[in-house]
Amino acid sequence: MAAAESPGPKKQRKRKHTVRSAMSRLVDRAHKPPGSAPGALVHTGEKKVEQVRIRLIDYNVEKLLERTLEGVDESFPFADREPVSWINIDGLHDTAVAEAVADRFNVHRLALEDVLSPNQRPKVENYEDHYLVVLKMLSYDAESESVNAEQVSLVVGDKYLFSFQERYGDVFEPVRERIRHGKGRIRSRGTDYLAYALMDAVVDNYFRILESIGDTIEDLEEAALGQPNIETLHRIHHLRGEMLVVRRAVWPLREVLGQLYRGEIGLVTEETRLFLRDVYDHAVQVIDTTETLREVLSGAMDLYLSGVSNRMNEVMKVLTIIATIFIPLSFFAGLYGMNFEYMPELGVRWAYPALLAFMATVSGGMLWAFRRRGWL
After folding, report:
1. 109 in the same domain as 256
2. Domain check: are 121 and 261 in the same one?
3. Which helix (H) or strand (E) holds 10?
4. Distance between CA 60 and CA 201 in Å, rounded?
5. Residues of the chain with pLDDT under 50
6. Which of 85, 130, 245, 321 has its CA 20 to 30 A from that of 336?
7. Does 24 map to a domain?
8. Cα 317 to Cα 21, 30, 226, 372, distances in angstroms
9. What residue numbers bound the domain in which 290 lies?
10. Residue 214: phi, psi to the nearest 5?
11. Contacts of 324 by beta carbon, 8 Å cutoff, 6+ apart
12. What angle do CA 229, 246, 93 make, to 5 degrees?
């Protein structure tokens, strides 16, 4: 594959901006005001949607109801009636939604405080009659070679599951399709199985993200081996920052899933824990793949440095050979450039062409000797 072409100035500016944003995503700069009471429901992230969207999927084995709600209050009757009510909330900036959930379902305010703080580390928190799972949902932009991490929070009770997202769009559509068409066992299971299905969708998406990043790294390796330039170095450095974002999202996931499948959360049934163990294995594979890609990126950096060093050595070799050839020529030119009156060769008619021929012979002989030794 040919070396990657250097992008235009516009694309370079976009990538540099993305590098800075990748670094900012590694440090949590948004906090509640100092002195705030524990459990205060304050949104500390960015407003990523103009209007909060609430969708309900209420189902059991025989019935299914799917609709978009005007407000979270409309979900309250369903959450008490059917075995499973999945309320998906896109947008975190309206704290009144979290207030209503806390008041109606007695969800602990510390859990909702974590929901409204989008820079949480992936974790699971157990409360009296519900539990909270915080995950990172990743997406990859191949054009800018950047990874975006969005926080997804699951508040899981006996008959309800609230999923909070920062923006529209997610990786849960296959789960919705399974619910709509009654595929598999999801319509006959409880909220713990639904939570498993959502976490499984998030983890499966990690594999697609890592596959795309792996293709990009493969291109970078070939560019580093072929025609390494400063743009190749910038791309490697940029992608190393993006892999830190991925690592921060996936590394704590092993602990989260481990707590769930080991039975440390009371609302998770024994049968669901078997499926969670499978997701745990997938998460370990994701972590191993992430570390492998980071090592490959480090190797690509070494390839780049080696390529630049080899090119520099080639240039230095050529310059050294040229300088070596001109050393004896400079000697003869300097010798016959001296202004002595009695130099016998100066009076000979053929002295000048003979000297040029002699100098050419010396240069040719040195070139022949260098080539014979393999220096050229």
Report:
1. yes
2. yes
3. helix 9-25
4. 21
5. 1-20
6. 321
7. no
8. 42, 55, 20, 15
9. 39-307
10. -60, -40
11. 366
12. 120
Q: What residue type is 120 in one-letter code?
A: Q
Residue 38: CB atoms within 10 A of its CB come to 8
What pLDDT score does 288 carry? 95
Position 337 scores a pLDDT of 77
Exposed e or buried b per residue across 267-276, where buried means at least 16 C-beta atoms within 10 angstroms of its C-beta: bbeeebbebb
- Look up the CATH number of the domain holding residue 276: 3.30.460.20
pLDDT (tens digit per residue) in 61-77: 888 999 998 888 877 77
pLDDT of residue 356: 84
The DSSP H or E segment spanning 84 is strand 84-90
Burial 223-242 (b: 16+ CB within 10 A, else e): bbeeebeebbbbbbebbbbb
Q: What is the DSSP letter of 86?
A: E
- Alpha-carbon Rg for the chain, nearest whole angstrom, is 34
Same domain, 119 and 196: yes
Q: Which two tokens stand for residue 298?
A: 């480090």
The answer to whether 157 and 195 are in contact (CB under 8 A) is no
Indicate whether 197 belongs to any domain.
yes
pLDDT digits (tens, 9 = 90+) for 330-363: 887 887 777 777 777 777 777 778 888 888 888 8
Q: What is the pLDDT of residue 39?
A: 65
Q: For residues 123 and 257, what is the distance between their CA atoms, to the nearest angstrom?
A: 9
Nearest to 171 by CA among 212, 134, 202, 207: 202
Task: Answer for the pair 45, 166: CB distance below 8 angstroms, yes or no.
Answer: yes
Specify the residue for token string 């990874």.
Answer: 147
Residue 52 has phi, psi (to 5 degrees) of: -70, 135
* Beta-bridge partners for 59: 64, 84
Q: Is residue 159, in this structure, part of any structural domain at all?
A: yes
Asked whether residue 316 is domain-assigned, the answer is: no
DSSP 215-247: HHHHHHHHHHHSS--HHHHHHHHHHHHHHHHHH
With CA atoms as reference, report the closest residue to 115 among 200, 46, 43, 53.
43
